[in-house]
Amino acid sequence: MRKEEGKSSIRLILIITAIIIVAIMGINAMREFMDGEKVKSLQADMLIVKTKVETLKGKNTLNPEENPLRGHQLTQIPENIDIKEFLEKNVITTEEYEKYYLLDDENLRNMELQDLINKYDGYFIVNYDSFDVVYSEGYKNENGVWCYKISDLEKESKIENEVKNITTQLDEHIVNEQTSQEKTEETATTEQTEENTEQSGER
Fold first, then answer.
1. d(CA 116, CA 114)
2. Among 57, 81, 100, 136, which is disulfide-ready with 86 (CB 3.0 to 4.6 Å)?
């Protein structure tokens, strides 16, 4: 009786342990999914900001007085905005500070980007010459590497395309090699058959 109770207790412990493991795995999977969705949302918003920057730059070129460039140059950041930790990462070099503008809530509103206000903890920083967009808090890509610029996102796409092209070329090369080998084997078999036929005829 005691043995059966002991076995039941062990089974119960194993079942509970299995349930806990599955629950932990499920939570981790959900976190990864949510993190992935947040990154995709951020990347999409960075592209929207880039489009607005390109539009404003075009209007500014035609009429700079009515369409001034929005944002605070990194050389003239207001005291109430703290991005010291970001600047220390040297994502943007000190020589480039004059080219980059930080967009605060007022700037986002003026650029019709009010949906981004309070959506993120960091700031969007833009370059009106290269149309690059930087997010001060950064994000982790699929490989776990921290990225800050929209140009990093574009590089990821280029790398992915290059990998796909290389993979495709390798696949085509393998198929061609297999086809060539099969043809060689067929030719050898045909020649052997003809030779055997000739020898049989001579006999």
1. 5
2. 136
